[in-house]
Amino acid sequence: MKSYPQKVDTIVELVDIDYIPRTCEIQVIVLSKFRGRKLAQKAMESALEHAFYILNMHKVFLYVDTVNKSAIHVYKKLGFQLEGTMKEQFYARGSYRDCYFMGILKHDFMRDRQHK
Predict the structure, then answer these.
(1) Can you say whether the dihedral through the CA atoms of 89, 8, 33, 82 is positive or negative?
(2) Predicted TM-score (pTM) of this structure
């Protein structure tokens, strides 16, 4: 029987999976004390492989706060491209915030993996 760690440092999930256009959203959370260890990048790489190779998604997308520069940097490293800005998309810390809509297509993900 496989044992699992008692503490979780990173959560990554694929949500809003739609098998007709073959798209889904990816979300990741890393506890603050574990940031800077490339955990989000590693978890997202695994989730993207699952989305594209197992679930046969065509596109994976995400939303990110426009001021979250470290997350945007990681997403771009993974191959996500900025597709647009959504004005006042969510409410946090007493005000509405803009976010970027970013996506990665299966053929771009596969091409990038071949060049590594």
Answers:
(1) negative
(2) 0.86
pLDDT tens, position by position, 43-82: 899 999 999 999 999 999 999 999 999 899 999 999 999 9
Q: In angstroms, rounded to a whole number, what is the distance separating the alpha carbons of residues 116 and 40?
A: 19
How far, CA to CA in Å, does 73 sit from each of 12, 22, 23, 113? Answer: 17, 26, 22, 18
The SS3 assignment for 71 reads helix
Known active-site residue 100: no
Alpha-helical runs (H) found in the chain = 39-49, 69-78, 106-114
Give helix 39-49 / helix 69-78 axis angle, nearest 10°.
40
State the catalytic residue, choosing from 63, 75, 96, 100.
Answer: 75
Q: Residue 1 CB: number of other CB atoms within 10 A?
A: 2
